[in-house]
Here is the input.
Amino acid sequence: MSASGYTTPESELEGILPVHPTAARRPHALVVQSEHTSYSDEHITAKYSNRGASVIVADGQFIINPTVDSFEFQTKREVSKTGLMMIGLGGNNGSTLTATILANRHNITWHTKSGIQQPNYIGSLLRASTVRIGTEAGTGKDVHVPVSDVLPMVHPNDLVLGGWDISGAPMDKAMERARVLDYDLQRQVAPHMAGMKPLPSIYYPDFIAANQEARADNVIPGTDKQAHLEHIRADIRKFKKDNDLDRVVVFWTANTERYSDIIPGVNDTADNVLKAIKASHPEVSPSSLFAVAAILEGEPFVNGAPQNTFVPGVIALAEKHKSFIGGDDLKSGQTKLKSVLAEFLVNAGIKPLSIASYNHLGNNDGHNLSAEPQFKSKEISKSSVVDDMVDANRLLFKAPEGKGKGEHPDHIVVIKYVPAVGDSKRAIDEYYSEIFCGGRSTINIFNECEDSLLATPLILDLAILTELLTRVKYRKAGSGEFQPLYSVLSLLSYMLKAPLVKPGTEVVNSLNRQRNALDSFLKACIGLENNSDLLLETRIW
Here is the structure.
């Protein structure tokens, strides 16, 4: 036992390298000197002009009326002490996130065949990317700062971790089972994880693949869904109280479920969803039950999987309680690249005729997706990613006649389970397009990635952004009190394959537009207009 590393409480390599820049702590150093921005001990308050245009199309003419709406944003400066409760804590993503936060928290370095590796938050939009805030006085050079420095945000090392899993394996064993991290890192973080064990979770066999039954040894007993709801709510309250937390973000990173049927009188309204839970209706899924529990506890819920957790009644319940929800499905690799490449082709005036996407992977996610109902959920979330890019260009693609999508590229998605490759997912994409005067172009991409190491930073970004958005309030100019943002946090879209948006509004899948929206919002909260790439000063005398 002494040679296993499990009795070693700290790393012998701990602290031998400086903290990586993506994990470093920095004081909040941005100060905007403007009549539009004010600071108090409690809040940053900023005035913002939302500029747009109203367009009337009549008889082939476009009548454009520029619009300006004035808002004020108020951001609470004190960061909440935040807990992250993951459903699927013992899965590949949950165990990897737990281990890597511990490695960063203790600055544990480890040996690989390439040398010593230090922990970091590479892959996190907030911690490892920057945003342009202006130009340096005197030189005119662009000034960039880390996205996490624009407003006060939770440091990932400070997240208090917990959650549920249908498998009762302690977290060190769950990490070992996942086979994601290097052995020398596992050996050193295992003592920190050995005492952590997931809470019992909800298991309804009808919603996930039958091949998951062998893992289900840690489940809340019985079939009474109302009792299960109360059990989960009590878990959230206890976790919050035991850890003296201000905020708990509840996050689904468990298995993909099959789609729930939308049934009038069952899950179409807030009241009907609650009645369906009391009646233990078979179409109430575990993920919807967790979402309802979080909503009723006033804590935000984020869905990192593709199923339709947010049936109309769950969205309505969040609106009713002014709780925050976000989803769906982590966008880490193939789909993120597709949203960029499809936009590039269409914006270049090239017409994609077909997009064929093939994946194979060998982790438990792939095992669960090998069942057809669960694969259909994933297929739906992956297939809509190019819709808004196509709809934006009716020169290339014919408009619909009546309702429907209109002309659209052929788009197919295939996912296969290959146990031997483990967490190392292979993705192959073919883009077949029409070019000038009947020509054809084919682009083939082969992408190999470690699935959980791409997904884990997205969970951190989503949790940290969600906490921030709970501290932001707004009001229209001349109106009364500040109020919270709308319940559906569509600003999370950059990290999600099938972004949940306000009912009745269009989904934006363009990665560039999603990132610009997030940058613009963060800047608006400190009274900055989004910097224009016009760079007018470089184009005039």
Remarks:
- The first helix runs from residue 92 to 105.
- Residues 36 and 250 are 35 Å apart (CA to CA).
- Confidence is low (pLDDT under 50) at residues 1-10.
- The chain is about 30% helix and 25% strand.
